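Practice set, problem 2.
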Amino acid sequence: MKNSNKWMKSLVVTTALSFGLMSGGTFAQAAGMDKEKGEDVKPEQAVHSQKTHDKEAHVKPQAPEQSKSEDNQQNAEKQREEAKGQAEEKANEKADSIKPEVKPNVEKKADQPEKAENRRVNSQASEHASETAVQHANTNSAILSPAPTEGSDEQTEEPGEESEVVTDSNESDEAEYTYGSDSASTANPEGQDFYIGKLGYGSKVQFDTTTGGGIYFSSDRAEEATYLYGYWFLSGMQTAPDGISPIEWGENQAALALETYEAMKSVYGTKVKPVIFIDVEPAYTGMNSYDYANNQLIYSAFIDYLLKNGEGITPGTYSSPWSWEVSMGEYSPSTPGAYWVAYYPMDMPTDLTTDNSEWITFPGTDEQAQIWQYYGGQDDYNVSWMLP
């Protein structure tokens, strides 16, 4: 019986040892799987697993077997630390592989095609040229035209190439001042670029085709000038034939002025410019003061006749602020681009540019006159910033 008890005790001990070995092997395999996953294996989980197996077997392991289990636990912890280290290395490697390399030059070049898609690439020299052209550009020139929108046919240029500045002219648009005189005055001391002679008034012609001059038309000034114009002293109803209407009176004067202009052109040829100035001012042979209704009809009829029958001849207007107010009231003239204004300062002006405040806009308009008569009397001197 004792032998039987010993045998049973030995069997129980052997079984417990075998079960301990099996449980240790299973734990090591689980640690290996966790290592592959890169997860942490906590030591308390391993100890809890071992105690559970011991409790189920209802057998207290021998001291040697406990020492072996502790060794297995230490090995598991060591494997866990190695797995943790490898997991961190893999995580760092993965982060390094995701982080993009910094290559400023490559990224900058990659942006260039998109930036150059809808704009010109100009050299430094061409940019300065463009700025200069813009400063002197006319309001309607190509330099100030709207920039091309997306989808336009404008071609871009390769970097380093100079773009050509497209303008109507390679020269500056700054005003080139010209000087002259009118009527029977002496020559302008500033120059004799142009001359404006009197053709007549009302129903009277004052240009003599045989002499090329007249009482208020200087043949000497006309010969010296580079450009030649004529003006007609517009008369009011006080000199009109009996029974004629203001419109008919305006048309009759325009027809006579046009005929005299052609006579002047036959004498002086191509230097004659295709403009006839209408002189509007109060006088016995001029417009009747404050007869606004008749004067306005005469003036507008004169212009209409020239536009219909002048074959390219442009009507212009000459007057001063006071003369226009007395003759035409608040009526607005209708000869844009061909205004000749008389406005005399106290002394001979030294500044004959459009910056001078005395070079005024023409009465009834917001347009600065093209020609300024800055001195009168026997010295009818004129300056122009743009000849019509």
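Problem 2, part (b): a different protein.
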Amino acid sequence: MNKTLQLGDVYDGRSGSALLPPEIIPFLASYNLIPQLLSQSIIEAAISTKGYANAPITCTQTETSHALEQFYQQWDLNTEQKIQDWCLCYGMTQEQLELFATRKLRVEKFKQQTWGHQLESYFLKYKRHFDKVIYSLIRTDSRGTANELFFRIAEGEQSFSELARAYSQGPEADTNGIIGPVELGAIAPNFAQLLCTSQVGIVQAPVPFGNSWIIIRVEKFISAQLDDFMRQRLLQENFETWFQQQLNQLSPEEKTWMGINTKPAQVQEANAA
């Protein structure tokens, strides 16, 4: 492997100019720091002057002052001398310190500026995946047992919860058959469809699912809301998708450092065989 590492501007595909000296590469590799360094360089390119739309992500003076204040408190830098000593210790100028202290905020601004305007449409498109459901479940590997349990519930002989506790063959037995709330997007599509087409409070007749027979009863549907928590989650999901795209644009050498398999699909399949 080449013992130099180029930290290129991978955001828009242009070649970079910052090279790590050869002697430091083995040191970084020995501590598995190269993937982290490459990852951070991708993000740095996006929030710097070489980043998104060639526009740097900046902070107001008030935001910068607040970020520095928090940073000083975190590091117990309560005098000007301590601040100067810290900068000297880490080889930072005041400008570099401000960039360091505001980096997290600038990343959040990058997310907001890049995807904030499309969150509502993104949410509406995938809302069903975010909706949650609470349901009761009994599963057994015997069709006969499933039918018998269904009739006991239907006739009111025993409750769903006590039969789930006694007969269900999954972890739901420990919760009286209750599962959730769980997002529909986290459930296997065919099972999610089964839940979505069930009436709340109605016990469904046994159906085969995988190697089991299951009885379900939907207890409650919970509609997802585009609140602050959801907005932050969607911003992060878009950011992670973007970051994966940037990884795909890395050079073969950089992908090797990141531990990304660069073999052609047919070679991977041949090796697997």
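Answer key, part (b): The chain has 13 helices and six strands. The chain has a mean pLDDT of 88.
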